[in-house]
Fold this protein.
Amino acid sequence: MPSPVVLALLFASPFAFAEALPIVAEPSPERQKQLVHLVRQDCGSCHGMTLQGGLGPALTPGALRDKPVDSLVATIYGGRPGTPMPPWHRFLTEPESAWIVQQLLAGFPEE
């Protein structure tokens, strides 16, 4: 059964995503900085340092716009078996994965 965070994100349209933000626990400013670094460096090693694509697909708002939010969260948190996309659940919580998706959909911040 998906967590309440994933369920809440599932029903949020891309335009209503901002309204879903209170449901997603916002990481501390220090943790946000760590998460931005993780995405830029670790995710960037496959998805391109500017997230425009590489071995993995682009992680830009335009590339992700049509993807279900819950699927994006699940991909980050649990990986994609049979592909190079690893699970990140040892390093991230599910709400942190949801925060990353929120940032990717908005245009990921610079370090």
Q: What stands out?
A: Residues 5-22 have pLDDT under 50 and may be disordered. Residues 29-47 form the longest helix (19 residues). The chain has one domain: 27-106.
